[in-house]
Design brief:
Helix content is 59%, strand content 0%. It is mostly helical and 471 residues long.
């Protein structure tokens, strides 16, 4: 499938829903649960060792030895609009770095055992430091939370019982791993005041997590307490990040898909290694600054209206970017979008485009200082695909935004979009803007700089096109 720049509606992401449609049961849409599923909802497992040997059936993604081709996995997610629900949990463990893509099932099994033991030691360490925080303090007015604690306690008892039946060999191996973990975390110290403050905010935010999701229905209410433990453990061992509002919604996504406390902690931690800055003030400013710069490229008039003398008028977009548009789309589609954004496929393409452009410049010998100073605009690799998604939403609602006269009206506008946006349409529009941006940069660069004789493979524009081909 090749991209036709002259006909953007034929782009790749516009077709992302096709694979999803092929994998759907005609009687049941992918991602939807039947009443039977909901009645069987349980509290998440502590860990999921059985998945270590599970296989991804995505074409060409996993080899005979169980190793994953990471670039193909990311490309598949982007070009097919995500993975089938049945494979999402396993795919995410690779996508977010819990399982190394180069690992074999045996290596993953050993790694899983190590991660379980380390998480136990970490969780136990903060519980011993603040024993009063082990249980959430309830005021008695939230009957659902009271039930959640009951369901969670039952699961805790079951987990404890399961560990008692390990054979002697497993006991010896885990004792060694536990000793390793204790040595690893021995020097970790906690700031009592900071950790208590983080737990205080977590205990406010966790009950506000969307309980309308089937994952938190019936016995699944206990997953609120699983989410709480994951967040506290993360905050305790990442004091430079600690906890910020919104992390509960983000982590809830991982818990729902992975359905495992240990796996959620490690996958969420890997994700935060890359995006923790977004939860700080400087990260917020950087996101808004980039979005404003992109909007200026795509629609100068709308940019002028929204930004004016500062970036503050675009602050209403920050929650979209921070949480991956979690509330703007129907829940099933929001999960799919998060998956597409997290595959970083277009970001990797942007980097390749920039490298191709650089190589083209070297080939044409335009490397003198004089020409370097007058070099035409490059593809900005800081313009991630999520920024194009945000811009697509803004441009789709251009007329309404032009009517907004102050920040209050902008916030009201943003609130009015919750749960109303169509994912396939938004992806198609974002793709359109992304390709046009790349196309303009490519033509700007090539204009007047093409050699008379040049092989097709040296053509930067050709290289740009070829990066979108699923091989």
């Amino acid at each position: 499938m090749r991209l036709d720049f002259s006909s953007p509606e034929r782009g790749v992401v516009a077709k992302t829903h096709m694979a999803d449609l092929k994998n759907r049961n005609p009687q049941r849409a992918a991602g939807e649960e039947t009443s039977s599923d909901r009645s069987q909802r349980r509290v998440a497992a502590f860990s999921s060792p059985a998945l270590c040997a599970a296989r991804l059936t995505l074409p060409g993604v996993m080899d005979a030895e169980g190793r994953v081709d990471e670039s193909r996995l990311r490309m598949h997610i982007f070009k097919n609009g995500g993975v089938p629900q049945s494979e999402r949990g396993l795919a995410w463990r690779f996508l977010f770095g819990m399982y190394p893509c180069s690992s074999t099932p045996l290596e993953r099994s050993l790694l899983q055992e190590q991660l379980v033991v380390r998480y136990r030691v970490m969780k136990r360490k903060w519980q011993q430091f603040l024993p009063s925080a082990v249980r959430m303090h309830l005021n008695g007015t939230d009957a659902e939370l009271v039930a959640a604690v009951r369901y969670f306690d039952v699961r805790q008892t079951q987990v404890l019982q399961q560990t008692r039946y390990h054979c002697e060999e497993v006991w010896d191996r885990q004792a060694f791993l536990k000793l390793q973990a204790q040595i690893l975390f021995e020097r970790v110290t906690f700031d009592n005041e900071e950790l208590q403050e983080a737990i205080r905010i977590i205990d406010k935010d966790v009950p506000r997590t969307n309980r309308d999701l089937s994952y938190y229905q019936d016995e699944g209410l206990g997953n609120l307490l699983v989410l709480r433990d994951v967040l506290i453990t993360y905050a305790a061992f990442h004091p430079e990040v600690t906890y910020a509002q919104g992390m509960n919604d983000l982590c809830s996504r991982f818990l729902e898909v992975l359905d495992s406390e240990v796996d959620t902690f490690w996958s969420f931690s890997c994700y935060m290694e890359k995006f923790s800055r977004d939860f700080r003030a400087d990260g917020l400013h950087r996101k808004i600054e980039l979005e404003a710069a992109l909007l200026k490229e795509l629609d100068p008039l709308l940019y002028t209206h929204l930004v004016k003398d500062s970036m503050e008028s675009l602050a209403f977009c920050h929650r979209w970017l921070l949480l991956g548009f979690q509330r703007e789309f129907e829940h099933r589609d929001a999960l799919r979008l998060f998956e597409i954004l997290s595959c970083d496929h277009l970001e990797l393409i942007s980097q390749q485009v920039d490298r191709a452009r650089y190589q083209e410049r070297l080939t044409r010998k335009y490397s003198t200082e004089e020409n370097s100073e007058s070099e035409l605009q490059a593809v900005n690799t800081d313009f991630t695909f999520e920024l194009f998604i945000c811009a697509a939403i803004l441009l789709e609602n251009r007329e309404a935004l032009l009517q907004c006269r102050d920040d209050v009206q902008l916030i009201q506008f943003a609130s009015s979009l919750q749960g109303t946006l169509d994912l396939n349409s938004t992806l198609k529009n974002a793709e359109y803007h992304f390709y046009n941006y790349c196309k303009r940069c490519a033509w700007d660069y090539m204009n007047g700089r093409c050699r008379e004789y040049r092989s097709k493979n040296e053509d930067f524009f050709y290289q740009l096109r070829s990066l979108f081909v699923l091989k």
